[in-house]
Amino acid sequence: MKIHNVTRVTIVICLLVSIVEIILSCTSTASLSRGDAAVIAFVIGPYLLMAIYAWIWRANPPASYLCLTIVLVLSTGGLYFFALDSYRYHTVPDYRKIQRMVVFLVPLFQWVVAMVAGFLIWGKAATRAKSGQDQNR
């Protein structure tokens, strides 16, 4: 795969998973209100951040592939927990009586992973670029 293809695949996965997670997180509401905008931003934020990372690191092959790998892991876990939460909400009557924490805990974990990954990849890319400049002198 070309580097640009890896970036495109990463961004497309981020956008598609964001849409699906919004749909799954809103399965228990009759309609959306203005107050739900903050929750939606919180849910899709890690994917948007990873899409930005993918675009920034599109010329760095190891960083692009690592970003794609992180997005695949985050999206697989996020979709699994959101789908499980939605399934339980619709099939288990007692599950409707408790506060649904998946909508907050899963994106919180994803935010932490996305930020840590960003700092680590950024640090490695900066170190690699600096060492490349030192070798050219």
Task: Describe what this molecule looks like in 3D.
With 137 residues, the chain is an all-alpha fold. The chain is built from 4 helices and no strands. The mean pLDDT is 85.
Layout of SSEs?
Elements: H1 3-25, H2 36-56, H3 61-91, H4 102-136
Helix pairs in contact: 1-2, 1-3, 2-3, 2-4, 3-4
Q: How far is the first residue's CA from the last residue's CA?
A: 32 Å
Unreliable stretches: none
Helix-strand category? mainly alpha
What summary fits the major beta sheet?
Answer: none
Approximate shape: elongated
Share in β-strands: under 5%
* Secondary structure tally: strands: 0
Q: Treating each run of at least 4 consecutive H or I residues as one helix, how many helices? A: 4
Order of helices and strands: HHHH
Mean pLDDT: 85
Helix proportion of residues, in percent? over 70%
Whole-angstrom Rg: 18 Å
Provide a short characterization of the protein structure.
By secondary structure, the chain is an all-alpha fold. It has helices spanning 3-25, 36-56, 61-91, 102-136. α2 packs antiparallel against α3 (61-91), α2 runs parallel beside α4 and α3 (61-91) packs antiparallel against α4.
